[in-house]
Specification:
Length: 411
């Protein structure tokens, strides 16, 4: 079982759903009824959100990119802060990339922030600051895919443009009782075709907002509220009793465990950081010395097993490595010393384990061991990109989420 659903391999929708259940894209009566049910529901239940109060394509664009990676509740404060600092596409185009990344800090997927910044410059420099009005033209801009293009075209310009994102993917899959993986090429093709066919020509913006809201609030992943659903009478999955099994789940991703070390190298009240290059995980952000360990190397750090087995640690919680009072005075483990020396040219001594952070990046489950240590000698290696920053300067540098958690504990 996954998410309370039977595994796809033990379940064949082909057996359960007669092909006649799939609404034909010529059934205009079915479409008319569904459209009017959607809009009626929206009139009574549509959510008030900061980016819905205007039809400004710039605000819609920013909100949609932010919403691709987290929930509405988490996005609201980020959105408000971002718009306050960069109220227009011109203001964003003029900004330094590091400031854009600093405001994005914590949202993850930093390439999206970099794309936003460079696309703003294209819009200002090549399109006189005006957004294209159709989804086709919008997708020609860097970093704007079919979903974002559909959202901007419909929400800002009321164009009947299709959208398919997580909530509509689930809702549409159920409405048409789709018997194939909605994330695969054939499933995507079917859903986009359906989305283009079903989107209302009248009040397209409200229609698209409504289907996303119904998807997130009513047609929820694990517990769809069918009895309260405004679309129950049109829903083919409900009709066939398959609302839990649809959409089919993708094959489970294989998770890889990784142990990493982050070392805050201190010299007086300064710390060593460098900007990650384009090819690295956090391109454009600054980071402390960081590297990956094998399990054998992690064990050699003498972290008590019972402590290492504990779960997530967040800023403000106790150190997981040892007692809070424990300050190791023995020479830093040879592996750590060698890594710091190799990356920076600096030798280090006395180390203080500060915390362990457990987090995930794509298919990697990462245990990040955070350590502070003191400079004992050596010179900064040329070309390695490391520089000394004071704690005050650190507050203005864009860091990864874990980098910020480390920085927040430094004194
Ligand atoms: S009836 Fe149930 S499965 Fe169908 S759209 Fe509504 S909530 Fe989703």
């Amino acid at each position: 079982m996954r998410d309370g659903r039977p595994a796809a391999s033990r379940f064949s929708l082909r057996v359960c759903v007669p092909m006649s259940a799939f609404p034909k894209l010529t059934d205009l009566g079915w479409r008319r009824r569904l459209r009017s049910r959607v809009l009626r529901w929206y009139d009574l239940n549509g959510r008030k959100l900061p980016w819905r109060e205007s039809a400004d394509p710039y605000r819609i664009w920013i909100s949609e990119i932010m919403l691709q990676q987290t929930t509405v509740a988490a996005v609201v404060p980020y959105f408000e802060r971002f718009i306050q600092r960069f109220p227009t596409v011109k203001a964003l185009a003029k900004a330094e990339q590091s400031e854009v990344l600093r405001l994005w800090e914590g949202l993850g997927y930093y390439s999206r922030a970099r794309n936003l910044h460079s696309t703003a410059q294209v819009i200002v420099n090549e399109l006189s600051g005006e957004f294209p009005r159709t989804a086709d033209e919008l997708t020609k801009l860097p970093g704007i895919g079919p979903y974002t293009a559909g959202a901007i075209a419909s929400f800002a310009f009321d164009q009947p443009a299709p959208i398919v994102e997580a909530n509509t993917l689930r809702l549409y899959s159920r409405l048409i009782a789709m018997e194939i993986d909605p994330r695969g090429a054939a499933g995507q093709k079917t859903l986009w075709k359906f989305a283009a066919w079903i989107v209302s020509r009248r009040r397209a913006a409200d229609f698209n907002q409504a289907v996303m809201d119904i998807g997130s609030q009513v047609c929820r992943p694990r517990d769809p509220e069918c009895p309260k659903c405004p679309l129950m009478a049109s829903c083919k999955a409900y009709e066939a009793g398959l609302q839990i099994q649809i959409p089919l789940q993708p094959t489970k991703t294989v998770i890889t465990d990784v142990v990493e070390v982050s070392i805050a190298v201190r010299r007086g009240n300064q710390f060593l950081l460098r900007q990650c290059t384009e090819k690295e995980r956090w391109a454009g952000l600054w980071d402390f010395v960081r590297f990956e360990l094998t399990d054998a190397q992690a064990a050699a750090l003498k972290i008590p097993e019972k402590t290492r087995a504990k779960v997530a640690v967040l800023p403000g919680q106790q150190s997981l490595f040892a007692d809070d009072s424990a300050v190791a005075t023995q020479p830093l483990d040879a592996v750590l010393q060698a890594q710091v020396q190799e990356q920076t040219g600096i030798s280090v001594e006395t180390y203080r384990p500060t915390m362990e952070i457990r987090h995930a990046v794509t298919r990697y489950r990462i245990r990040l061991l955070c350590i502070t240590c003191e400079v004992s000698g050596g010179r900064l290696k040329r070309g390695a990109g490391f520089q000394w920053y004071s704690l005050t300067q650190l507050t203005d540098l864009p860091l990864s989420r874990t980098g910020r958690q480390v920085a927040d504990r430094l004194e």
